[in-house]
Amino acid sequence: MLRLLALLLILVTSPALAQQEGSGGASTRVFRRFADQVLKVEVVETSSAAKATIGSGFYVSDRGHVVTNYHVISQLVHAPERYRAEVVDARGETRAVAVLAIDVVHDLAVLRADVRPAKHFALEPVAVSQGDRLFALGHPHDLGLSIVEGTYNGLLEHTLYPKIHFTGSLNPGMSGGPTLAESGHVVGVNVSTAGNQVSFLVPVERAATLVATTLEPGFAPPKRFLAEVGRQVRAYQDVYLADMFGGSTPTVALGGYTLPTKPAPFFKCWADATRRDELPYQVVEHQCSTDDVLYISGGQSSGVVEVEHRVLSSRELGALRFYSLLSGTFASGDEGMYADDEEVTPFRCETRNVTHHALAFRAALCLRRYRKLDGLYDAVLRAAALGGRGKGLVTTLTLSGVSFENAQRVAGRYLERITWRE
Predict the structure, then answer these.
(1) What gap in Å lies between CA 229 and CA 103, rounded to an integer?
(2) Where are the alpha helices (DSSP H) in 160-203?
(3) What angle do CA 146, 107, 173 make, to 5 degrees?
(4) What pLDDT sits at residue 13?
(5) CB 311 within 8 A of CB 257
(6) What is the rounded distance in angstroms from the CA atom of residue 65 to the CA atom of residue 221?
(7) Virtual CA dihedral for 15, 21, 27, 28, nearest 10 degrees?
(8) Which end of the chain is less congested by CB atoms within 10 angstroms, N or C?
(9) Across residues 30-45, what is the average pLDDT?
């Protein structure tokens, strides 16, 4: 009997078991304390009363203010005559909500329900360190309110504005719900996932700023939220592109060319080469991009900037065959950006011969206009240039959600950064 008691005591007090029990206990405590402040957000198609979108949200004031993601209620923003939004609380009661404010850049929205909730979250700064346990609440796949335990892993490096890396399994329907520290402080707002427990949160500070604007005396929601979406994207791209490809942009040397790379500190760049014995030429590729993407609607994303250089070289091909190879590579590129025809016009391209630094380019600038957001375009610049014998370049700059003026300005600066040094 004494031996059995000793064995049980060892099992109960073992670090692994104690950690597991403590971890599970924390999830239980967080869920019991805060579940009644978390809501299901539904966007309903008015004529059929069918649910079009399911997300999550949470109370942030005693006046019924609710935080969620912009993308959760984007259908209502784009077609307010077709949709309405509702929230369902922990008791199953459904209430209509109105949209008060949106932040497209950070994928946030503030709603308001005609209710005085008994409890709500206070959006306050909270100190967290990498490895701290966090608890995400939301309605995955409309299966009911759930809690997911995960880990805080700091901020993403490759974005202009902060976004939290959460090692936990967020699923569709949890968007807009809160992720909490064990204390109950909101650390971030659930926003997206890349699968395999790689998920992302909007830092609580961004939500607090948006909510604060709605609580100011005399605040009134925009009359047309779709116009507000366009205004925010235009302001964003003005900041994002202000100094891009200016004089301080670093360069990389590839095959005799000096080329722009890493146009801002938050870009990530990588390279590869194709060298196969059966091919009479070689290709070196260099690409740069970020994790910045703006959700506009289910059929359209924006805010993308990408750079791609392809340097071709050959000692075997004669001048005519190499020129044919370079021309074919230049012509075979596509714009590579998906969007519904309802959202954008077809691309229209203008091709010219351009000379910079004694280097002659064949350059095509292709643009398509946003149908619903005035003054915004997607733009693709593709240019080809011959350097020395058997050396050629095809370079592509992709910009989405930019003004016509910025498309022209940035494309010009981009080409000016390209030189031939042999």
Answers:
(1) 8
(2) none
(3) 25
(4) 33
(5) yes
(6) 13
(7) -160
(8) N
(9) 97
